[in-house]
Structure formats: C-alpha cells, structure tokens
Design a protein that fits this description.
19% strand; two-stranded antiparallel ribbon; seven-stranded mixed sheet
C-alpha cells in the first residue's frame, strides 16, 4: 500500500529537504507551494494539517519541488503572486511584482487626492500590477498601461479581466521610440534600471529566470529616466506628477541629477520599507 501523505507530513519532510539543499527559509518554501496547490491561506493550511493529498496533487507538488530546486521563482512555479492585497497572474515573460513597488502605489494615491478624474499612464506595465491597482484604488481614474512586450500586454489584460477592472486599457508600445498622444495627470513607472554590468551579481532566482528586458536597459541603468524627461512635456497635463522607482546605491542620485539638469526641482524622495531610497515623486508645472 502506498504511503498516505498528509499536509503536516509534507511540511515536515519538505522543510528538512529544502534545509539540506541550503534554502534560507525552508518552511516558507513548502508553505507557499502547498497554499497554492490547496488554494488556501497559510492559517487555513495548518487547520487542514491532517488532510491527505491525492495522487494528482502529490504529482504536481513533486514537479514543483523539482523546479524550485533549480532556483526557479516560486511565483513562476505557481503562476501568481500577491501585490497590494490582490492576486496577479505572472509568467516568465513578466517581472515578478515586489513589495517595494507598493510604495509607488501609496505615494500616487496620496498625491492624486486633489485630482477629480485623473488620467494615469503606467510605462512598462508588465503584469499590469501597478496600472490595475491604481485603477482599482482610484475609482474615477482612467488608466493606460504601456509595454513593449506583446506577451506582457496579454498577461496584463488577463489580470484586468480577472480583477474586474473597467477603467483601464493596455497598448503595446516601445516608449524609447514612441509616446502616447494623450496628456496625463500621473506618469508612473518601474523601468528596467539595473546596469548591464551589475546583472551577473543578481540572485540566481532573478538573473536566470526573470526577463532580462524588464531588469536592465543594457546600458548604465539610466536610459529610461533620460527618455522620460525628454518626452514628459508632450505627455503630461499642466499640473501633473511623475512617480518612478529607482535602484539602490548611487542610482537615486544619478536619476536626481538627470531630473535637476532638466529643470525639475520639486522632487520628493521616498524610502522603501527597508529604509532605502527607492521612489522619486516629481511635481510638474508645465
């Protein structure tokens, strides 16, 4: 008779297994996989600890563990991740949303409080997590998400349908070669900002699996910010905002220099939850 594997058995076995394979948070690894497999939260998982898994579920879990041993991100394995309290579909063609990017959302919501019906442009929308979240949180907004990748646009559209968002649209566009003809009250972006020379230093999970085009500009990490200041006069309203994510180290200072050299002075620097400077908000008066 084949062994019956309960939830608690799998947690104990996998925690030991992942620990032997030098994973930093072995219990978190199996909790993530089991929560996705059983479609439940972490608390519910432990309330179901005596529940046995079916052969199909065990086969799926076995396959997921093998993939994780190769350092494939958990979000790609299970096909989803949380962002600002909502579940988004993700795939290897889009960047995995990070908690620090939620700071862009918080700052944007706060900065748009005085706007009646803000028009928002999300450049490099990827999974659509920023654009969709703003469309959901700011009910009277009109949001446009742009991305160079047709695969990203498809995933973003799927997410907008799943989350029942009607005040949003997505367009395939290479912002380095073109720009929208409308005027927006907020331009927001988490662009590729990792310098090409820094790519080898990234964690294996990121470097080997996430789309390179979403991580680096294949240059100094400043290409998109230089493009933004060039096209901003053509795409923003008279009183508007630019909110962008920046990298670590001296990257924020380099982006600040670009903005100041282009005549922007009303700039706010926002720290992420770790205290690092990761978001810049620029007030624009055209």
């Amino acid at each position: 008779m084949s062994k019956i594997w309960r939830v608690i058995d799998l947690i104990h076995w996998s925690e030991s297994y992942f620990k032997d394979k030098a994973f930093q948070n072995p219990r978190s690894e199996i909790e993530w996989l089991l929560c996705s497999l059983l479609e439940c939260g972490r608390l519910d998982l432990y309330m179901r600890f005596e529940e046995p898994l079916s052969k199909v579920q065990l086969s799926t879990l076995r396959n997921w563990v093998k993939r994780r041993l190769k350092k494939e991100p958990l979000q790609y394995i299970t096909g989803s991740c949380d962002f600002y309290g909502r579940e988004f579909l993700v795939a290897p063609k889009v960047l995995i949303p990070r908690p620090e990017t939620e700071r862009l959302i918080e700052e944007s919501i706060k900065s748009l409080e005085s706007f009646q019906s803000p028009k928002i442009l999300d450049i490099g929308t990827g999974s659509g997590c920023i654009a969709i979240t703003l469309a959901k949180e700011i009910k009277n907004s009109l949001v446009v998400g742009l991305d160079k990748s047709s695969e990203s646009i498809l995933i973003a559209e799927k997410n907008s349908i799943r989350l029942n968002v009607n005040n949003i649209s997505f367009t395939q566009m290479d912002i380095l070669k073109d720009y929208p003809k409308d005027k927006f009250d907020l331009v927001i972006s988490n662009p590729p900002y990792i310098p090409k020379n820094d790519m080898p230093e990234l964690m294996e999970d990121v470097r080997d699996f996430e789309p390179e085009i979403a991580l680096t500009d294949f240059g100094d990490g400043l290409t998109f910010y230089k493009r933004f200041v060039k096209i901003l006069p053509n795409i923003v309203s008279r009183k508007s905002l630019l909110v962008v994510e920046v990298g670590i180290g001296d990257h924020p200072d380099n982006v600040l220099s670009i903005l100041k050299e282009s005549g922007y002075s009303d700039i706010k620097i926002i720290n992420d939850y770790n205290g690092d400077r990761r978001v810049l908000r620029i007030k624009i008066q055209n």
